[in-house]
Amino acid sequence: MMHISGTSAPLPFHAPDQRCCNCGTEHGVHMRDTELKKTTYMLLGGTETTFVLGLPFCGDCEPTAARFRQGYFSRALVAFVLFWVLLGVLMGAGGEHPPAWLVENMMLIAALGAVGLTTAFYLLRRPSAPQTSAYQPVFLSKLKRSFKGEVQRLDLGFTNHAYADQFALQNQAYCQSGLLVVDKR
């Protein structure tokens, strides 16, 4: 078990610093403090836990360090907001006397447009080779706490499998104790 206090606590793990954790290049790599966040939703609210881990990035992959993965709830929220924006646009597009087909199908058109645009945005956001992810290549996938709030287990997800192997090797004691789980995605 490990007690971590504060809102943005540093993790005690050691990241291999020879290669970029996203694309694997050895050129122009520098360490960057990267925030790893996990949000747990409960009904209408939630809690967010943030840890900081120094990770190596090259210049091309550095923007991915701050690009958090969005879950289904966040994506649904984007679609919901987009629905209302599209509905407003459709209401204004009809003028004073909109066509009957537009009035009858306005909600359906806005809903399909919102879902289509949201889906297209997330599907088109792909990594450019040799990157392994367009989002954070190392991310907090699971977090297990005790009733007192002490961290019992951290699961770190890795999109670069070779880097995940190096990370696990360098943090072997944490992996063997069960505190750290290296999850290849």
Describe this structure in words.
The structure is a single chain. The protein folds into two domains: 8-69 and 135-184, no CATH class; 73-124, no CATH class. It is elongated, with a radius of gyration of 21 Å. The chain contains four helices and six strands, in the order βββααββααβ. The chain has a three-stranded mixed sheet, with no helix packed on it. Strands 4-5-6 form a three-stranded mixed sheet. Helix 1 runs antiparallel to helix 2. With 185 residues, the protein is of the alpha/beta class.
In terms of quaternary structure, the protein is single chain
Work out the helix count. Answer: 4
Average residue pLDDT? 88
Please provide the ordered H/E string of secondary-structure elements: EEEHHEEHHE
Number of domains: 2
Lateral arrangement of strands in the main beta sheet: 1-3-2
Which parts are unreliable, with pLDDT below 50 for 5 consecutive residues or more? Answer: 1-6
Tally of DSSP β-strands? 6
Report the radius of gyration as a whole number of Å. Answer: 21 Å
Major β-sheet, in short?
3 strands, mixed
The secondary structure category is alpha/beta
Strand % is: 25-35%
How far apart are the termini? 25 Å
Helix-residue proportion: 25-40%
What is the molecular shape?
elongated
SSE topology sketch:
Elements: E1 8-10, E2 30-42, E3 45-57, H1 72-93, H2 100-124, E4 138-145, E5 151-158, H3 161-170, H4 172-177, E6 180-184
Parallel strand pairs: 1-3, 5-6
Antiparallel strand pairs: 2-3, 4-5
